[in-house]
């Protein structure tokens, strides 16, 4: 089989960085057509800069990187420096990028790429708020025909919220955009907190990254060293969840994951539950399934894959 053509839409973020590195380390399975950046974990100027630095860290400076939307569709931007640090990539010391952003807006790149593609030939991989994807679908709804599926990190059901009592961060930042995407008719695979909270970077797993003895291994271990302090204190867990790499791992080996085809709706009105992913896990409504909602992961298999692929960079 030829590699799956993907566009990574991202707001790096330490876990975004690891997800991008995993994709770039897996050319046999994944062909990264471009990386589009959105405001989320930190403002757009920083997410765009971080994406460039990650490509340079991977030694893959030919990947085009595009800056996109700098604010959600209908509300003020909420960021997460309290988790990721003021740069979004606190932990390692990485040099400022020499790569330059593409002149084209990320949304226009998404539209043009999909317009020129065969039906169901490109997978969209959003790792942050869905603003760029929703904006592209609103501007050019015909591009949905070219999307094989959307594999995204976002949402929660059993784990409820990580930014509010009911909402996961990526969906909460732009619930209107998420609503557009989930109603698009495109098949969606949801890497929710229910699965990512089972992908914990325990000390032995992080030591395996460090033991690679490469700039990538060192940087990833330093990212998770920084990243984990917040989650270990918050959840009392033995390590930080690696949310976004679940998206790229799924593209490489979907047998690592288990979930259900269910209906998922996005709450856009309630002040109390804004951004909640209302997942009909138990099938108590007659609303049609629109997503494969992932709940379980083979965590050991996931970290074995991740460590082996990172060793290639």
Helix content: 25-40%
Rg measurement, Å: 18 Å
In spatial order, strands of the major sheet run 3-2-1-4-5-6-12-9
What number is the mean pLDDT?
A: 96
- Structural category is alpha/beta
Mind describing the biggest β-sheet?
8 strands, mixed
How many DSSP E strands?
12
Strand content: 15-25%
Number of helices: 12
What is the straight-line distance between the termini? Answer: 23 Å
The protein's oligomeric status is single chain
Unreliable stretches (pLDDT < 50, length at least 5) are none
- Encode the helix/strand succession as letters: EHEHEHHEHEHHEHEHHEHEEEEH
Shape: globular
Topology of this structure?
Layout: E1 4-10, H1 14-24, E2 30-37, H2 44-57, E3 65-67, H3 81-84, H4 106-115, E4 122-126, H5 131-139, E5 147-153, H6 169-173, H7 175-182, E6 188-191, H8 193-196, E7 200-201, H9 203-210, H10 215-235, E8 240-241, H11 245-252, E9 257-262, E10 264-266, E11 277-279, E12 291-297, H12 299-310
Parallel strand pairs: 1-2, 1-4, 2-3, 4-5, 5-6, 6-12
Antiparallel strand pairs: 7-8, 9-12, 10-11
């Amino acid at each position: 089989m030829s590699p799956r053509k993907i566009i990574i839409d991202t707001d790096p973020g330490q876990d975004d960085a690891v997800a991008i590195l995993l994709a770039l380390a897996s050319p046999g399975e994944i062909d990264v057509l471009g990386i589009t950046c959105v405001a989320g974990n930190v403002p757009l100027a920083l997410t765009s800069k971080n994406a460039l630095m990650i490509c340079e860290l991977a030694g893959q400076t030919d990947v085009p990187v595009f800056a996109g939307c700098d604010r959600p569709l209908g509300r003020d931007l909420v960021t997460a420096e309290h988790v990721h640090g003021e740069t979004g990539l606190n932990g390692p010391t990485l040099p400022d990028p020499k790569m330059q952003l593409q002149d084209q807006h990320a949304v226009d790149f998404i539209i043009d790429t999909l317009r020129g593609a065969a039906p169901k030939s490109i997978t969209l991989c959003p790792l942050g708020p869905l603003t760029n994807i929703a904006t592209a679908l609103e501007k050019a709804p015909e591009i949905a025909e070219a999307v094989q599926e959307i594999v995204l990190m976002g949402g929660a059901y059993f784990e409820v919220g990580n930014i509010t009592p009911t909402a996961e961060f990526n969906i909460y930042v732009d619930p209107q955009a998420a609503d557009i995407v989930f109603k698009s008719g495109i098949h969606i695979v949801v890497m929710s907190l229910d699965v990512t909270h089972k992908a914990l970077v325990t000390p032995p797993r992080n030591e395996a990254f460090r033991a690679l003895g490469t700039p990538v291994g060192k940087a990833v271990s330093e990212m998770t060293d920084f990243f984990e302090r917040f989650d270990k204190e918050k959840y009392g867990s033995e390590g930080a969840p690696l949310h976004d790499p679940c998206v790229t791992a799924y593209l490489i080996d979907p047998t690592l994951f288990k979930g259900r085809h269910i209906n998922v709706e996005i709450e856009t009105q309630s002040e109390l539950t804004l951004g909640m992913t209302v997942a009909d896990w138990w099938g108590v409504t007659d609303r049609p399934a629109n997503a494969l909602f992932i709940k379980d992961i083979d965590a050991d298999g996931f970290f074995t894959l991740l460590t082996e692929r990172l060793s290639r960079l």
